[in-house]
Amino acid sequence: MNYSAEPFAGNAAAGGAIDSHTVLYGVIGDPVRHSKSPIMMNRAFRETSVNGVYAAFHIKEDQLAAFAGGVRAMGIRGVNVTIPHKVNIMKYLDEIDPAAAAIGAVNTIVNEDGKLIGYNTDGVGYVRSLKEEAMPSIAGKRVLVIGAGGAARGIVHALAAERPERIVIANRSLGKAEELAGAFANLAELEPIASGGLEEACGQADLVINTTSVGMYPNVDESPVGKGWLKEGAVASDLIYNPLATRFLREAEQLGHTVHGGLGMFIQQGAIAFEHWTGKPAPVQAMRETVLAALNGQRS
Ligand code: ATR
User: What is the DSSP letter of 280?
Assistant: First the structure.
């Protein structure tokens, strides 16, 4: 079977038709019904005339092995993996990209003729979005990452490749920050600190990134940092995209900082997955437009 991205034979502008050449894609998670990936990816397929269709699959932990078998049997070309399966899916894949192996998590699977290869596009998606929207170069910059969980791990790995002066990792529990800093000590200058040192670290950073869930809906009145902690000219970045502008970003913007929300990372991690699957550049603007419309409660 040929898994490559075939264009629609019909009129893609009219939405294309699902036919006997249509290639399947999807996202797995538990839960998964909130996911905006299907509308974003189906828009990308329409926009680029790829004859594909992308669905959401609610897969429980004990169904992962069967799912991987199903992907091979059905020739599903590409899968995104979301919470809570990003780590556990790895044992069912045939090959793990070195960056994903270092991060210890996979969010994208590519099916190459029955061989399942795992990638992690979260960190590189974040960096692509940050560079496009807020900070064109990270080289020589002092970065502060708040949080040391799975998301922080992908981001620190990708940021390290951009040659920052140093990356300070601040976490509520110092042990996890130390563990993360230790894991990538060979890639960049990394310094773990406890939350007590956050205010001082904010005052020294050129870029402050919130990777925790503090400020996420419904806790929209929370912020991981105090208003006015950032130094003049620093960029404020938040992985959260619900709300689109967290309290952290709203306050930073009021004080004149450049701000960068989490929507761009979501779009770009999807864009890079799309590129792995189809070999085509992703239609990023159209993808963003579709997700924004959905987040604003409209039909796209
Ligand atoms: P994710 O994959 O989204 O990063 P995670 O791996 O569970 O999720 O990590 C969540 C991160 O947010 C952790 O660094 C966590 O801090 P701890 O390691 O101390 O648990 C941080 N976090 C979550 N809620 C927080 C809160 N209310 N205040 C401060 N940090 C918080």
Answer: S
